[in-house]
Design goal:
seven-stranded mixed beta sheet; Homoserine kinase (chains A, B); 10 helices; about 325 residues; homodimer; ATP binding (chains A, B); EC 2.7.1.39 (chains A, B); amino-acid biosynthesis (chains A, B); alpha+beta; globular; 2 domains; Ribosomal Protein S5, domain 2; threonine biosynthesis (chains A, B)
């Protein structure tokens, strides 16, 4: 097999933040947003291998060694897979979202990295085949190779991870008018803690309720039927347990719903929360109300409002 | 509120058999088939109230008292609801499918009854509003007012019962070329036993796998994507427990899959099994192979092959 030689000396790629779980779809649903996201710049080097030469915006918290960095490991695994360990790149990572926020920060970096190197080498693999390498970044960051952030960040849109063995990722069409509000309260929740407090058993009753909502959300998105989307954005299994890790969760959620959101829940393992709305104005208002709920107990926050990102990563100037 | 007076002296209605659960969707999925089904004939009477004057095809096993019969109770509850206890009808029920078979026999009778009386009275209620009365028939037959048989029998097509409180029933479009094979082995499984052996707890791991398949099946039907339908027709929660009640279940299932079925599982609480295929010839072949599997241990069976019934009940001559 012959691949193109690197013809691009330098490339910058943006990969989007993602909301995993999406209320009822623990470990199987995720979608990408237009904003925020992470950016990586790769520059060709004569010296084989991957080097993280700088990380901007992480306040020094992320490892600079390529094999301990999600983007670095994703690029390394990719280069090994395509048999191009002769390639050398220097990477500068621009973190443009909070770390450990439940917004898929590690996934966005890994996706940006692997998408960028694939572009740089003349696209030897189709985008969908980059997924396993981005998942290696997640394995490094979270301890297991989850796909519910990397898959939507890489493929764009709303994604179902139907199965892990074998990996089966399905893209679901979403209505044009669907806006996401993300609110990141300035508190920290450790992803591993968030997983640890979950129970290993679910009642059959709650399993049935959750399956009904999973089916309803997919049908609601595909029809589209906003009422059905709204009724289905309900999580009876994970949210009741994890909500206790987020101060003012119930108040922020009620603020979102009272201001017209279709639904509101935890983004990934939190502490960020997401809400979906039918128009940009509502989504803005929902964000302001949620921020106010946090602020009422002295917690500052960042809010982001954007459409669903149907494109995934993109090359930027 | 004024309703039309009965203008029809006699009416016959066919209501279809149904496959509940549909592999991954325990208690939430169901679809109607074109064949078999039950038929009811109502004749106007001067004497108020509902009388079951005859039942054909039940070998004397079903109660003749209206308030102990699923069709009778559905009609009675309906007449009470619309305030027409002055109406009198004599009903003849033609059971055209095996009882206690997992094919929604009690649901089909209740749906036929309530659809027929509503037609007879000039359709005072839209079809979808007949659901609660048909569910009363199910409460009588099964001990709880399940909707996963009555909803598809009444509405036709593939149905999701997203929620019971409040009742939220969603109709899902299915591809034109989707054929159902039903095989009813001549053994009996009691619905209450079939429910009793289920565990009250499900592992979170299996809940996630099942949710992935639930999402995959809805997406597969709506896209449509036959490969996705096939990969999603997997039940890791109920089938492994209930399969032990059906002798030769695994052999019959493998026979279906080996002969080209997209998937195969238990219909409702069994003992009938269903398979879905992409064309009528395959569905026929699948049925023959499944029957042969049962016959290899001396179990005779009936097989039915038909399209998905998108119409629901219909008036017949």
């Amino acid at each position: 097999m012959r691949f193109h030689c690197p013809t691009v000396k330098s490339i910058s790629v943006f990969a989007p933040a993602t909301v995993a779980n999406v209320a009822c779809g623990f470990d199987i649903f995720g979608f990408a947003v237009a904003n925020p996201g992470d950016q990586i710049t790769l520059t060709a080097s004569d010296q084989p291998g991957v080097r993280i030469t700088d990380i901007i915006g992480d306040e020094g918290r992320l490892p600079r060694e390529a094999e301990r960095n999600t983007a670095g490991i994703a690029i390394q695994t990719y280069l090994q897979h395509i048999g191009r360990t002769d390639v050398g790149v220097d990477a500068v990572l621009h973190k443009q979202m909070p770390l450990g926020s439940g917004l898929g920060s590690s996934a966005a970096s890994a996706v940006a990295g692997v998408f960028a190197i694939n572009e740089m080498l003349g696209r030897p693999l189709p985008t969908v085949e980059l997924l396993p390498f981005a998942m290696e970044g997640e394995r490094l960051a979270c301890g297991s190779a989850h796909a519910d952030n990397v898959a939507p960040s890489l493929l764009g849109g709303f994604v179902v991870v139907r199965s892990y063995s074998p990996l089966d990722v399905i893209r679901i069409e979403t209505p044009a008018a669907l806006y996401c509000t993300l609110v990141h309260p300035d508190i920290e929740v450790n992803t591993k803690d968030a997983r640890f407090i979950l129970k290993n058993e679910v009642s059959l009753k709650n399993t049935i309720i959750q399956m009904g909502n999973v089916a309803g959300l997919i049908a609601g998105l595909m029809k589209p039927d906003y009422g059905l989307i709204s009724r289905s954005l309900v999580d009876v299994i994970i949210e009741p347990v994890r909500a206790i890790l987020i101060p003012e969760f119930n108040e922020a959620k009620h603020a979102a719903l009272d201001n017209g959101a279709l639904g509101c829940s935890i983004s990934g393992s939190g502490p960020s929360m997401f809400a979906l709305s039918r128009d940009a104005d509502t989504a803005q208002q929902v964000g302001a109300a949620m921020q106010q709920a946090f602020l009422s107990v002295g917690i500052t926050s960042e809010a982001y409002v954007s459409e669903i990102n149907k494109q995934g990563p993109r090359v930027v100037d």
